[in-house]
Each structure stands twice: as structure tokens, then as C-alpha cells.
Amino acid sequence: MRPALDTDKVFKALADPSRRKLLDALYATDGQALGALCEHLDMTRQAVTQHLEVLEAASLVSTSWRGREKLHYLNPVPLYEIYERWIAKFERPRPRALRELKKRLEGGR
Amino acid sequence: MAKEKSKSRFVYVTYIRSTPEEVFQAITEPEVARQYWMHENVSEWKPGSPWEYRAADGSRAVRLLGEVLEHTPPRRLVITWAFPSDRGNRAKHSRVAFDLERIEDMVRLTVTHDDLEPGSEMERGIAEGWPRVLASLKSFLETGRPLATWAGKK
Predict the structure, then answer these.
(1) Which of B40, B86, B87, B89 makes an SS bond possible with B30, Cβ 3.0 to 4.6 Å?
(2) Which CATH class is domain B2-143?
(3) What one-character DSSP code corresponds to residue B66?
């Protein structure tokens, strides 16, 4: 599977509630095997496998082997990229605007 | 074995449009690291040699230290990782492995941080730090601009 560089894959992966639930499950307990993850979802093993593949292709989940067991880890790196690109940028000017306002109000006292 | 299982592990991955050589340098060369990490990894990079993680400001403070376990440029780097106050306490040293793999025109960088004490200050710190550092490294190598790596942090 060709790994994703584009943000589209990350947003698409996040657009599904079952996949978000899987990410939450990994946030609660990192490094889980497929069997353990299936317990969190009312879904077939096959469906969970497919969701994990989408998450892995979007780089939101990384994997590592322990013996013959494939463990899944939350990989928040793409989330941080999205945060920087789509959230922090719009957040940052606000504190500055508030500081200006505070200065003006206090100066005018 | 039981003891090892009780330690926690984190696995972070990022795909960077770059070469393994460049990514390896960005980790091991202080002049590059300071530009996107705000810190430097200082070492002679020989197995057994000490490694220090220093603030890239006037203080040059050593924030973390450890030892080089493996140095195989440009594919793999393994170091131990601890707070300076735990220098003599090997039980508190965690382990970080950087694995670089070329995939088409990209590098897959995997950072595996294990032997961490569950619930420790170190675990919380690295879980917050690695995604920031790796996202900034990717941005720096691809666009020449780092991210605000430690925005909102001390």
C-alpha cells in the first residue's frame, strides 16, 4: 500500500466513527493486537481489519511485531500536522488581538 | 521478560519527501537539528559513546542524556534516553530507535521509544514531544520551514 502524504487520506480516515473509536481505544491503551481491538467494536473481525488498514495507510496507526503478534500503536504525527496547518494557524492571531484589546482598555483607564 | 512487558512502548511514523541520508543528518547534526527541534543531539555517534540532548539556546542546558547503542547511517540509530538526574539509575533509562527506510521518493522514519515506565513524567513528555518533533522535521525537510515545535510549551 502506498503511504499517504496528502492530508485527504487523514481526513477521510477520521471521517468514520468506527475508526475514531479505534483511535480512542489505542489512546486508552497503546499497542493492542487485533483481537483486543475487536472487543471495543460491535463489528466483524474483518471489518476491524479493514478499518485498521485505512488508518495505517493514513499513517494514523503504526504497527510493530511482538513475536507473531502484530501490535497497533496510535501515531498522532499526522494529527499534529493537521493541527498546525488547520487549527493553530487560525487560533494564533486571537491572543494577539485580545492582548491589543487589553492594552487599549487598560491604557484608556 | 515479565518486567519488560510492564514497560511501555510508543511507535511513531512519518513519511518525508527526502533521502535517508538527509533525514539521518537532520537527527544527528546539531546545526540541522536546532533549526526544527530547538535542541541538539550531541555525540560522537560511536557505539558506547555518550549522547546529550541540549537546548539550542544560550543555556546549552543538557535536558536528556544517554548512550549510543547502534549507529548505522543512514538506516538505523539506537540510543538510551534518560533525565540527567537519572544518570546513574539504569533502570530509568528508556530506549529510542530511529529506523529509516526509503520508499519510492520518500523516507519512512519510524521512531520506537520503549522501556518506558508507565505513567511516568518521561512517558507523558515523550508522548507529547515526538509527534511535534517529527511533524516539524517533516515540514523542515520538505518546505524549509519548521513548525512552531514547542508552541504553548515551556
Answers:
(1) B40
(2) alpha beta
(3) E
Give the pLDDT confidence score for residue A102 in this predicted structure.
76
Residue A41: which pLDDT band, with cuts at 50, 70 and 90? confident
B35 Cβ under 8 Å from any chain A Cβ:
no
Rounded Cα gap, residues B45 and A60, in angstroms: 31
Rounded-to-integer distance, Cα A54 and Cα B126, Å: 26
Give, as one character, the DSSP assignment of residue B153: -
Binary contact (B139, A84; C-beta < 8 A): yes
CA distances from A55 to A10, A58, B17 (A): 8, 5, 20
Quote the minimal CA–CA distance from B14 to chain A in Å: 7
Query: DSSP labels for B126-151?
Result: HHHHHHHHHHHHHHHHHHS----TTT
End-to-end distance of chain A based on CA atoms, in angstroms? 63
- The domain limits of chain B are 2-143
**β-bridge pairing B50-55 and B39-43:** antiparallel
Contact pairs from chain A to chain B, CB under 8 Å = 62
Is this prediction's ipTM beyond 0.85?
A: no
